[in-house]
Amino acid sequence: MYHKRGGSEISDDQRDIAGPGRVDRIAMISHTPALPAPRSPSAGRQPKVVVAMIGAAAAARIARDRRTYERLIVFALVLAAAAALARENQARSQERLAAWVKRL
User: Fold this and answer.
1) Which of 51, 61, 96, 104 has the fewest CB atoms within 10 Å, i.e. is most exposed?
2) Which pTM value belongs to this model?
């Protein structure tokens, strides 16, 4: 048999073990909101340190990888070619603008 006391159910066995004075306290404890445990000041830094260590290990591995160097060289060549095309396009645009201004 269960009794509702303060919003929580308490069995007869719990009531006999706890005694009449403790039943109300048991019911009250079950209704208190659970508060988070206090955090230590260094607890916030630990995940940042872990991420930094993983990043450093990944960077060291990437720096030793031959394929990474190959990809960086190809990327640099593509970037240089794109910059050259952009400069040529800008020069042509300026030439067209100068020719248009002369016609006016």
Assistant:
1) 104
2) 0.40
